[in-house]
Amino acid sequence: MISTNRILLISISAIFFVTVNIAIIFGIGSLVSYLNSGADRSQMLHANIARMVEYTPSVSWDLSNQSGKRIDNQSLGNIERDYLNAWYTRHLSLLSNSVDIFGDYYTDKAKSDLIALIENNRETGVKIEATTTSHDLKFDFLSTDGHLAVFTDRRVKEFQRVFKNEDLISQSHYIGTYRIIMLLEDGFWRIRHMMLIEDSEEPAVTHAIDSSELIENIKGINYYPQASPWDTFGHAFDTEIISADFDIIKNAGLNTIRVFIQYEDFGKAEINDIKMERLQRLLDKATEKNLKVILTLFDFYGDYSVLDWTRTLKHAEGIVEALKDHPAILAWDIKNEPDLDFESRGKDNVINWLKIIIKKINDLDPSKPITIGWANYKHANNLSDVLDFISFHYYGDIEKLPEIYSDMKQEHPNKAVLLEEYGLSSYQGFWRPFGDDESDQADYHKSMQTIFKKNAIPFMSWTLYDFNKIPKEVVGRLPWRKRIQQRFGFIDLNGSPKKSFEYIATNQ
């Protein structure tokens, strides 16, 4: 007699067998239906590449004086897509020295040349890290059958770093012009011929705005709403709260706020329209209250890899193009405390990325000054030749500040120097029983305002409010670090001014 358990096991096995076969038949049917519908088979063949592409250089086309068959928009879009994928897979291949990545974006002849280069790099211990950030394409010719396209890629902005046995041996920014021939095969376009016909060094980044008067008059504060620190533009966004906060700031004698734009929060390469609309409303309120804004970009960004450059450039373009004419914006701050990433990400990686972002923003908005908020004043010499004013953060011994500031002014006599962050936590409790209390905080700010007035130091304090919660991304998970960060404000959790509020500005 068959046991109940055995009958149950046989039943489950049968159900599983039938379910799997139904799924297989359904999958095959869907595939056949997809292909018979006239869908582009190349999209399936290249689905994995399409999903992993994070390469978004700026692209423009010049279709004037084209010969041969006229190119239509769909075909032009397909050529652009496969051409950029060819560049991207080339970058990946040269970085990894793998011959298995660039696949079907090159004809056999073009592929053989790449394979030879990669095999030589393997043998000699060479690795190439590269990207391009813009392509100015002039379409020259399309064959009668629509299967051969010729175009010129003009003024391609390229960056390349060459390593030998993991040691960096060279790096360069240059501009190249290429003659390109592509063939349409199996439903997608392949590079048949790619010849560099001209190249030159890209001009160095230059930016010269005399912003001294603007910056030297700053009396400001770093701003987050109390209920949503490090999430200003999230679900709790409320213009009435922001308006009331700006009244407090203005009435306290301050004239400038610093606001942070988080890279991922604002959509990376594809700007989040909802966040942007909220940012516009905040800037409108600042204008209404006669406050200026230093907009700090790329908060919490930390990649810096060359292959990620195009996404960050597109992000910068989306923000700056939308806001460059807004009257509230005083300056662009490229990133908050990038020097904290020097050790973990590599100083060269961070500096190279900062350079290309500075260049991009300068191209987009040459009328506004650019700065970087350095965590350590000792790092403020980095890129000082291409920044319009110097910004640093200081939480050290206040008695040393006048000398530090004086030295910085002597090193940069033609540029304003802004103390962009400073402050003292009033947390005294279980995790810091002998820490500073609210009276100590008030004494600190009183002393700082005396120093500012005596030495004509423009300042932005940290921060308006005490906060109930601190995101782990800010100071980590350790409770004693969170508690300290929660109590830097001039206004406590109940909305009452702390003793330090009396010294929020020099005219108090």
Structural commentary:
It is a single chain. The chain has 508 residues and is of the alpha/beta class. The protein folds into two domains: 147 residues, Nuclear Transport Factor 2, Chain: A, CATH 3.10.450.50; 292 residues, TIM Barrel. The protein is 39% helix and 23% strand. The strands form two sheets. Strands 13-12-11-10-9-8-7-14 form an eight-stranded parallel sheet. Helix 7 runs parallel beside helix 8. The longest helix has 33 residues. The radius of gyration is 29 Å and the shape is elongated.
Low-confidence stretches: 24-48
Q: What's the structural domain tally? A: 2
Task: Please report the first level of CATH classification, the CATH class of the largest domain.
Answer: Alpha Beta
Helix content: 25-40%
**In order across it, which strands form the biggest sheet?**
13-12-11-10-9-8-7-14
Provide the succession of SSEs.
HHHEEHHEEEEHEHEHEHEHHEEHEHEHH
Instruction: Give the total of beta strands.
Output: 14
SS-based structural class?
alpha/beta
What's the story with the biggest beta sheet? 8 strands, parallel
List keywords for this structure.
39% helix, alpha/beta, TIM Barrel, 2 domains, 508 residues, 14 strands, Nuclear Transport Factor 2, Chain: A
In short:
The chain has 508 residues and is α/β, with parallel strands linked by helices.
Which helices and strands, and how do they pair?
Elements: H1 4-36, H2 41-45, H3 47-52, E1 58-62, E2 67-68, H4 73-96, H5 108-124, E3 126-142, E4 148-164, E5 167-185, E6 188-201, H6 212-216, E7 219-222, H7 239-251, E8 256-262, H8 273-288, E9 292-299, H9 309-323, E10 329-336, H10 342-345, H11 347-364, E11 370-374, E12 390-393, H12 401-411, E13 417-421, H13 438-455, E14 459-461, H14 472-475, H15 479-485
